[in-house]
Amino acid sequence: MGCEVWAGRLDAYVDGELASVDERALREHLRVCPACAADSLERMQTKRAVQTAGMRFVPDAAFRARIQKNLAAAAPARRRWQWFPALAAIAVAVIVGALFVNSTRGDMREKQLTSELVDLHVATLASANPVDVISTDRHTVKPWFAGRIPFTFNLPELEGTPFVLVGGRVSYLNQASGAELIFRVRQHQISVFIFPERAVEEMRAKETSSHDLSFGVRSWSRNGLRYFVIGDVNADDLNKLSDLMKAVA
Amino acid sequence: MVSLSFEELALPLLDRLYNFAHWLTQDRVEAEDLVQETFAKALKGFSSFQQGTNFRAWIYRILRNTFLTSRTGLKAAAPVELEEEMLPASNETPESILLERLDQQQVRRALEELPVAYREILLLCEVEEMSYTEISSTLAIPMGTVMSRLSRARRALRELVRGSGRS
């Protein structure tokens, strides 16, 4: 690849924002292209210089103490007030029944989690480098995750199905790492997220099926892992891909 | 999941938030007021913050929005936002690149002179070492805009540094 391809991506390289495949390719290019090498070196120097020059102002001790005092003053007050909603909730629970309250609160948390995953899916669609490992071969994608996430999973054989594996990337949710696999069916992309169950305690139901903005979501648990299938495709496709994943899990 | 208190999440960020605020306001007293107001607002809105999502991006966003709606912020922010994003992100030719040692003084002055929109994105990227995703959620702009604005900010900074080097 020539310089014109890379020139626009040197900033992303210097910022460590290139996908690992691209980064490797760019490093190769830098070894043989003095112009791009000089350019990226200059960008690196500027970055460092701004870093040093930018870390400049320190709050004085009196100000720091003031902030700390404010926070300390606010904290117990908050704690005291926190009793009131709790008491109210207990009263309501007594009347309405604890079970009902619990299940609606669970639903809300589940919804929040689902929309966060939909956001992740949309971010992947919008990203210039949607996948970190590009491969249609499940035997390449699965080992790529080894050492990058704290669990393993199986990928189904897709031959004879309308689905194509595009690749994968490491994803994060509730401060836990997991796998995001990207599949294509016709012109649509579907993300399959896999996270350890303890990272997504919000999901209580064994299996769920829902819609968030025009995105269909299927989710289920198997062997300590929680799976989410998300895409703007019809219910049939979502179910089919879910079934394929379930069959090998 | 363990949920952290506001204090536990916010206090470790105090120094950096203050540095950022000082760069935005360019004034010690104003920076202190800005940080204090940010903490007050964030504490008040903390119940709406979703644990497990990015606290840093959240509180920087509050600080920045507070600054932008302050008198100094309104004065500082307006002009660049208008001509922003219309220009194609062009790249310098290799010939235009000078390898020179960057003088700290010059870089500091250039940072001060940059329009706020450029100054803040450079600080978030270089000093706060935020990822593009984090910057995108802090500034509430799409990823593409993060990249183009960042590249423009860097070009503007380089030009300022070079200009001052020559004069």
* Computed structural class of chain A: alpha+beta
The CATH C-level name of chain B is: Mainly Alpha
CATH superfamily of chain B: PhyR, sigma-like (SL) domain
Radius of gyration computed on alpha carbons of chain B: 17 Å
Structure, explained:
The complex is a heterodimer of chains A (249) and B (167). Chain A is α+β, with helices and mostly antiparallel strands and 249 residues long. Chain A folds into two domains: 3-47; 109-248, Phosphorylase Kinase, domain 1, CATH 3.30.200.100. Chain A is 53% helix and 21% strand. Chain A contains eight helices and seven strands. Chain A has helices spanning 3-7, 10-14, 20-32, 34-54, 61-96, 98-126, 138-145, 235-248; strands spanning 133-134, 163-173, 176-185, 188-196, 207-212, 215-222, 225-231. A seven-stranded antiparallel beta sheet of chain A has the order 1-2-3-4-7-6-5, with helices on both faces. In chain A, strand 3 (176-185) and strand 4 (188-196) form a beta hairpin. In chain A, helix 3 crosses helix 4 (34-54) and helix 5 crosses helix 6. The radius of gyration of chain A is 24 Å and the shape is flat. The two termini of chain A are 40 Å apart. The mean pLDDT of chain A is 83. Chain B contains nine helices and no strands. With 167 residues, chain B is mainly alpha-helical. Chain B has a single domain (6-166), classed as PhyR, sigma-like (SL) domain (Butyryl-CoA Dehydrogenase, subunit A, domain 3, Up-down Bundle). Chain B starts with 5 loop residues before the first helix and ends with a helix. In chain B, 69% of the residues lie in helices and 0% in strands. Chain B is globular, with a radius of gyration of 17 Å. The interface between A and B is large, with 48 and 54 residues.
